[in-house]
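Next comes this protein.

***
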Amino acid sequence: MMTDLQPGERVDDLQRNGYKIIQNPQKFCFGMDAVLLSGFANVRTGADCLDLGCGNGIIPILLEAKTEGRHFTGLEIQPYSADLARRSVALNHLEEKIRIVEGDIRDASKIFGASSFDVVTSNPPYLSAGRGIINRDEAKYIARHEILCSLEDVVREASKLLVPGGRFFMVHRPFRLAEIFTLMVQYRIEPKRMRLVHPYADREPNMVLIEGLRGGRTGMTVERPLVVYQKPGEYTDEIYEVYGY
């Protein structure tokens, strides 16, 4: 059966619509950044959405649960992760709403065609190749470092894939904001909304949520900070709301 578990895999409850997801802790499990992106992304009724680098399918599944989008596609280059995503889609009986495609982000516009989506999301690798601790597990290394695609690849392909006026949503690290904004403007995705995520109210932000509009006019809203923990081990009310608890 397509949803049968393989060695090392487990099924986790997503606390949304009764949905579940298959994960393998020995490889890579989704993190809070993916959940926050799914809460930040504004997917309008009837929109066609693409997630670049979907991993085990967490963002398309959460967006299907949270929004009124018409259809959701996930693009993933790692065969095992793509298989995980497909099996999770089947586990939730979402085959008519979510499609998982195995392929390279760098070729995304060739795979799907230009101006094919109303919304593009991405939780891309945060670190440049050679930066930070190199994980011996290849799947984790690829997920965290720009080995198979760069930030420019993600932004360039998102721009090609979006319809005019389409929206791009991404979660990344604040230390790369200057590079992110430069690339977005270069590829005609105007930064329109940004929210910094702080682990605690008195700590520096460690994540940033960004919305861009293909062909949009200049002008960006900076939303109030999102704080994750009110004290160790206890989320803020807003985080509980995003998770659906």
